[in-house]
Specification:
Elements lengths: L5 E10 L15 E10 L16 H7 L5 E6 L17 E8 L7 E11 L10 E4 L16 E2 L8 E7 L12 E10 L11 E4 L4 E4 L8 H5 L3
Antiparallel strand pairs: 1-2, 3-4, 4-8, 5-6, 5-9, 7-8, 10-11
Length: about 220
Amino acid sequence: QVTPDALVYRTSLNYNPVPTGNPVVIRTSPAVVPIECHYPRRDNVSSNGVKPTWVPFRSTLSSEEKLPFSLRLMSDDWSTERVSTIFQLGEVLHFQAGVNTENHAPLRLFVDNCVATPTPDGSSSPQYAFIDFNGCLVDGQLDDATSTFIAPRPRQDVLQFAVDAFKFAGDSSNLIYITCHLKVSLADQAPDPLNKACSFNKASNLWAPVEGTRDVCSCCEMRSC
């Protein structure tokens, strides 16, 4: 039986005792035991015996929820989150962007843009966009910077990038706030000019993607993607 909330299975366990010992007397009675199993319709039920080909409801529910993105400052070897947010000029900021994909189909994470501002308001002035144009790490083009995306990725749902420390000229507070726009595409979708992670290679004087063909980065040079 299907109800609004459950799938109900009913059956009966029939017990018919066979006389043992003296056939003239019996010591047990026949019985019928009703059995009823209720399975919630909005849950996953599996004995792990087979892999279902249907999409579990929890996946459907998860796809309707917001994806939990994260952006963390990491230690120099990327092993742990950095405790201190104080840097000296000449040091390197190690950023790790990630997304918890839960039950989603495999996703690939991208950093669309990152802007630095002296206040928490990402639209305030002055500001410096060190990642721009849908995934171009433009800071790496500057003569005094070595900023780059880290390739290969540790996982498709993680993207790491290193940026040389900087400060705003004439700003005595020495505070910098970072605001980044993160997004995902399906992992099996080939990178394109709108979904890419491109670094500038000074040795070759060319833009190079973390994955995909080099042509996805061509718009970084034109600064219009």
